[in-house]
Amino acid sequence: MASITSNTPGKVTVRRVKLERSYERYLWLFMRLSGVAMLILAVGHMVIQHVLNSSTNLTLQFVAAQWNNWGWKAFDIALLWMAIPHGIRGLFNILSDYVHNGGARRVLAIVLGLFVVATVIWATIAIVLFDPAAIP
């Protein structure tokens, strides 16, 4: 990345800025990208589920009919993969304002990270293995 500055008229100074690659930077980038992705996915979900369809139609049979199609499963899995880590990372950021001990913050990060991994894996398996034919 380059920064162009000029202290005197007619003279331009170019400085090279080296960006440090770190875990926190990638998490910051994930929050921004997942936020944009969720704008599309969550708004699409709300429009499809609550505007185009009546709320009285939101039954297990309605979900089974949707999940009979892999496109809907992929849509819901993508929303899941964006929403759970994004929300838990936001929770960690809030809790970090109140937890000042480095060790406690590390434990909090590990516990929340394990929760994210377990929840995403468990919910993805549930969506993938859901059998619409089993619904009466």
Question: Which labels suit this protein?
Answer:
136 residues, mainly alpha, 3 helical TM bundles of succinate and fumarate reductases
Descriptive report:
The protein has 136 residues and is mainly alpha-helical. The chain has four helices and two strands. It has helices at residues 23-51, 60-66, 70-96, 102-129, and strands at residues 2-5, 13-16. Strands 1-2 form a two-stranded antiparallel sheet. α1 packs across α3 (70-96). The radius of gyration is 22 Å and the shape is extended. The mean pLDDT is 88.
Count of discrete domains: 1
Helical content stands at 55-70%
CATH topology category name:
3 helical TM bundles of succinate and fumarate reductases
Overall 3D shape: extended
The number of strands is 2
Strand-residue proportion: 5-15%
Q: How many helices does DSSP assign? A: 4
CATH 4th-level superfamily: Fumarate reductase/succinate dehydrogenase, transmembrane subunit
Compute the gyration radius: what is it? Answer: 22 Å
Largest sheet: 2 strands, antiparallel
Name of the CATH first level: Mainly Alpha
Whole-number average pLDDT?
Answer: 88
Reading side by side through the largest sheet, how are the strands ordered? 1-2
Derived structural class: mainly alpha
N to C succession of SSEs: EEHHHH
